[in-house]
Amino acid sequence: MPRNALLLIVLLWLLMPHAVNGVLKAKCSLSLGKDELNPRNHYRPGHHLLSGIISTAQTQHLPFEFLSFPSAKVSKKRYKQHWKILSFLFAIQEINKDPHLLPNLTLGYTINDNYFKERITSDALLDLLSIGEANVPNYICAKEKNILAVLEGDVIDLSIHISTILSQYKTPQVSYAFASQVLNDKNHFPFFYQVLPGEGIQYPGIIKILLYFRWTLIGLVAPTSENGERFRRTLTPMLTKNSICVAFSLGTSFSLKDFEKIIGHLNKWKKVNVLVCYVKTDSFLGQIFFLQVMLEMFVKLEAGKIWITTALWDFSLDLKSPKYLPSLYGFLSFLIHRHKWVIDDKFPLLYSSILKFVDEGFHCLYSKPAGTVKGWTRCREKEDLRIPPPSVYEKILSLDGYHIYSTLWAVANAINVAYSSRSIRRMRIRKYQLEGQLLQPWQVFILLYFL
């Protein structure tokens, strides 16, 4: 036998699977137990769906131990902001009742909660992009969901994560909150659309407040993130131009690891009573509380600081916490005005009515089909659900400044324009039979820029 042939046989023998002594153990099933956090998917069926990946509450997860069956254990969970879900519900109901919008078509919604967590966001996107009950993307196992757009208002890292995945499917990502300028790069994020103007629109307002009260010596505080660095880099020359002195400009992680950096500004902290702070929507009270405690421990404040922050929403529930009230001595922020703002001085009572409305308005059932790694609690809107009285309705929508509500109307108008233009084309060119074809997500995205 030739030497080369013998060598080939030896190599093939080495590549063959070899039997092992004993019985092979069965592989672990690709399955997870029910998530302790119990994330929910609220939905209402329709010809087209508008999806939402929203954060209704913050949580603190215990780390994976890798010594037991994997599960998402939660050490702390805050109250849920259910009004975000109700904003979807109210807007979709009104849109479907409007005779001038989308005749012969019904809009539905599907909302996944991500709790400000990347892992749950990935689970939500997997659930969203999978056709059928099992979470297996790119396989058509049932009737398509016909999702035309995904609404979100998350912090920058999660928004980028969402955009990276959705762009592969040419699905519009519509942000109802301030977003990073990074997401405006159409080469990397071609299907991202921002409803609100850029964050810089707030900066002249901050300067006007400082000049009005003659606060000409201030401190700048921002997180050590891309947005935080841009905030300090952009605002500092604007302040200097208006004769406002920046005593110090601090970038911090708002944690004890920056202890020395914060203490290094002690003398300057004592001179400054006004702090302009760039804050994250998901943790702004914790940031202010942390700094306030540090100041009280080492600076021995005789009076509280005045905090001026960038525009916020989603903080109504936090303000009733006695833990944070001492830290909010002189707290000023901005609200993006969309509709009339309805103030409610009995928030706990309103919150209780919201909880009751959500509990009674949806039928919920935990579902984990075969072949699915992770299950969801599916909550379907009841058909006989009635919208609450206008007085309560407006208070609920005011809790997020009508942002979600208005954004849904903008997307619905884009869908309506798209279908109207298709109808005109069908009248002009009869040979193209488009009557049975539904709109595609990328067609909606193009029209958003013309509204």
Give a verbal description of the structure.
- This protein is α/β, with parallel strands linked by helices and 451 residues long.
- The protein is 36% helix and 17% strand.
- The chain contains 13 helices and 15 strands.
- The chain has helices at 3-15, 83-97, 118-129, 156-166, 203-212, 226-241, 259-263, 266-271, 284-298, 347-361, 390-398, 403-428, 441-448; strands spanning 40-44, 48-54, 59-61, 74-77, 107-113, 147-152, 173-175, 192-194, 217-223, 245-252, 274-277, 306-309, 331-332, 362-367, 376-381.
- The strands form three sheets. It has an eight-stranded mixed sheet, with helices on both faces. Strands 10-9-11-12-13 form a five-stranded parallel sheet. Strands 3-4 form a two-stranded antiparallel ribbon.
- Helix 12 packs across helix 13.
- The protein is globular.
- Mean pLDDT is 76; it is low at 18-30 and 427-436.
Mean pLDDT: 76
For the secondary structure, the number of strands is: 15
Order of strands side by side in the largest beta sheet?
8-7-6-2-5-1-15-14
Span between termini: 78 Å
Radius of gyration: 27 Å
- What spatial form do the alpha-carbon principal axes imply? globular
Contiguous helical run count: 13
Helix content: 25-40%
Sheet-strand content, in percent, reads 15-25%
Provide the succession of SSEs: HEEEEHEHEHEEHEHEHHEHEEHEEHHH
Structural class by secondary-structure content: alpha/beta
* Main sheet makeup: 8 strands, mixed
Low-pLDDT regions: 18-30, 427-436
